[in-house]
Amino acid sequence: MPEMKQKFRHKNDLRENGYTPSVRDQIDGKRVYVTPAGNVYPSITSILGSQPKPGIEEWRKRVGAKEANKIVKESSAIGTAVHDLCEKYLYNSPLKCDIPEAVEVFNRLRFKLSNINNIYGLEIPLHSDKLRVAGTSDCVAEYNGVLSVIDFKTSRKTKREEWIEDYYIQTMFYAAAFFEMTGAIPEQVVILIAVRESNEVQVFTKSIKEIDVYMEKLLTMMKRIPHVVAIK
């Protein structure tokens, strides 16, 4: 792995202002978060993951279950490794990875990571008592000098923006929860997608002015899945 050169600044504002994270747990096989007040909320990823995915089901039928499972397992391993490298890089820590493709993907992505600084948190647990949902944001920091919720993704193929609505719902939720917990509102969400089958790193941004649209989509989604939202 290449040597670390850039040094990222980390801010201590959250801890100094009384930020207390929720704690991840499992109840009946569901990922949940327990807040400092003792409330138990479903994860945003569980909510989004419970939605019908007809495109994925069609793909699985087309390639066959065995091949689909192989691709999913490989993609998951590479995605996890790239995410781990991003986190270490932004923590100014030594980099090590035994998956060559993950290293290649990260080396393309890290040029975009240079736009990040003044980091408020990495893998930061966030929850909303208003929405009764929680989750873990990849990164809250300044991106090109603008306070942002930043998400790191990998993909085998290039994404169209209309395919990533779930990503916007997820990151807008993190922005809403961050504001609720800290009083600071991120001005935008930034989604970085490293495409494995090309040298491309896609950058999608959305202004916080559109947050109401995506929170309405989240609320509508939650009404359709009471079995996921309800925590015993």
- Series of secondary-structure elements, N-terminal to C-terminal: HEEEHHHHEEEHEEHH
Strand content: 25-35%
Residue stretches low in confidence (pLDDT < 50, at least 5 long) are none
Task: Work out the helix count.
Answer: 8
Q: How large is the radius of gyration?
A: 18 Å
Overall pLDDT score: 89
Gap between N and C termini = 46 Å
How many domains?
1
What is the total tally of β strands? 8
The main sheet comes to: 5 strands, mixed
The helicity comes to: 40-55%
Shape: globular
List the helices and strands and how they pair.
Elements: H1 13-16, E1 23-27, E2 30-34, E3 40-42, H2 44-49, H3 54-63, H4 65-90, H5 100-113, E4 116-128, E5 133-143, E6 146-155, H6 165-182, E7 188-195, E8 201-207, H7 211-224, H8 226-229
Parallel strand pairs: 6-7
Antiparallel strand pairs: 1-2, 2-3, 4-5, 5-6, 7-8
Helix pairs in contact: 3-4, 4-5, 6-7
List keywords for this structure.
about 230 residues, alpha+beta, three-stranded antiparallel β-sheet, 8 helices, 8 strands, about 40% helix, globular
Describe this structure in words.
- With about 230 residues, the protein is an alpha+beta fold.
- It has one domain.
- The protein is built from 8 helices and 8 strands.
- The protein has helices at about 15, 45-50, 55-65, 65-90, 100-115, 165-180, 210-225, 225-230, and strands at about 25, 30-35, 40, 115-130, 135-145, 145-155, 190-195, 200-205.
- The strands form 2 sheets. A 5-stranded mixed beta sheet has the order 4-5-6-7-8, sandwiched between helices. Strands 1-2-3 form a 3-stranded antiparallel beta sheet.
- Strand 4 (about 115-130) and strand 5 form a beta hairpin.
- Helix 3 (about 55-65) crosses helix 4 (about 65-90), helix 4 packs across helix 5 and helix 6 (about 165-180) packs across helix 7.
- It is globular.
- The relative contact order is 0.16.
- The mean pLDDT is about 90.
